Amino acid sequence: GSLFLTYEVLALKKAVTLDTQVVEREKMKSYIYVHTVSLDKGENHDPFSTVDIEDHECAVWLLLRKSKSDDKTTRLKAVQEMSETHHWHDYQYRLIAQACDPKTLIGLARSKESDLRFFLLPPPLPSLKEDSSTEEELRQLLASLPQTELDECIQYFTSLALSESSQSLAAQKGGLWCFGGNGLPYAESFGEVPSATVEMFCLEAIVKHSEISTHCDKIEANGGLQLLQRLYRLHKDCPKVQRNIMRIIGNMALNEHLHSSIVRSGWVSIMAEAMKSDRIMEASHAARILANLDRETVQEKYQDGVYVLHPQYRTSQPIKADVLFIHGLMGAAFKTWRQQDSEQAVTEKPMEDEDRYTTCWPKTWLAKDCPALRIISVEYDTTLSDWRARCPMERKSIAFRSKELLRKLRAAGVGDRPVVWISHSMGGLLVKKMLLEASKKPEMSAVINNTRGIIFYSVPHHGSHLAEYSVNVRYLLFPSLEVKELSKDSPALKTLQDDFLEFAKDKNFQVLNFVETLPTYIGSMIKLHVVPVESADLGIGDLIPVDVNHLNICKPKKKDAFLYQRTLQFIRETLAKDLEN
Questions:
Q1: Mind telling me which InterPro entries this protein's record contains (predicted)?
Q2: Which of 108, 183, 309, 376 has the fewest CB atoms lying closer than 10 Å?
Q3: Exposure pattern of 91-105 as b/e (b: 16+ CB <10 Å)?
């Protein structure tokens, strides 16, 4: 082996031809300046000359050559070796950054140990047009997108964003702020323009557009990648704006023909840094973008709302099973699964000791206890009331949402490995409906065949009192469709329960049920036992009452708490044979 390596190095020294000025510049920790060469074959260009490379430089060039090998295994090993190297000089990292191809760059961004010096700063952004602003250009980008293939909600978001933008611009020119078209009171002075509000409307609309491939092409063609990058930098202190921008880039990355544009615009460098963030939400959004760009090691595609919590980097650890987390009403992919808040947690810095406090226990505790799992959390919009709906036309039933989620999860490769589903509240009803839907479709049979077990945290299998209190609390005067479907007299809920119970018994799914015993405050007016014990009883599996309220039933107080330890025990026992193989 050592003889072959020596031959490789010596052969490389003889074979490499470089611009001698480039080498000297790199030794001075500068950049490689690439000569512009005509593509006319008739012209004779010979700007390169042979140069001897010092022995300590050979490793860099050898790795670069291997990273461009036709053999995939060789390429991956070269990227891994690059990422694990921490003794190079600055100019050697910059040399790799200048000379590597997009696959290598993406691989380095998805390697946990990679030095950020591998990533060049994004190219300079184009100047804003005269008498324009980022808000105006964002509005123009949105207005330029096709109005075809739009559902009612995309039309709603687009209309709302454009009307808010128009009023904002008019107010700027008039020098005073008025009430926005959405009834939102703006500042009465004209000191600092509250453009973030308007930009959020535009971004939410563009998020919806970016779910359509042809609209992604328009976003790219109209300079959207650069404009979104400008906004990302401007709002570095506004995580919500940045997350919406990352959702758009993540959706665009689902289209492989746009990968070169995304790389050229500098987004890989930005996401490589975001991956190392202490903020779990930021890192997870970045991980989704880079996974969608990484066609070397990732076959799955992660659509909007599907987040891999573990592993977020390339890993040599074999992944043997999937654990999926599905939140409930008013929940989210991250906040639903945080540790139960306490006075101690507030005073501690969350990332200093994740065993003591975590903002997402599946990513920290479960990933550490079961590293052979792929852990996925999904997110979807839900509302308690039609008054609070983010889209008034969006009246999605459990059946509609289950089809949508099932399609996204299958695209993410769910069903290719053994699966345990973990759900809270209405999320459990979605899981039941998804599995019943999958059982009727031959192309989804893998999802059923690989489902090993389900954990239900306070799932209202037989309905909830929530809808019945609609007349007693202001924002439930017009309960949303989701809330109505949770009513105890809902025919759809009864049919779902009866069908799933028979189905689960036939498939011999392992089941664990938890249920709250304490009431939950809904707003400031009413205290409600959201899911009573009798409603949380699926009819199979253990039913364990826990002295917490509905919101905290899925939030363990600490890592050694019964709630987490019993969950961990169920996962290990249910997947025991699969994890051993």
A1: AB_hydrolase_fold, ARM-like, ARM-type_fold, SERAC1
A2: 183
A3: bbbbbbbebbeebbb
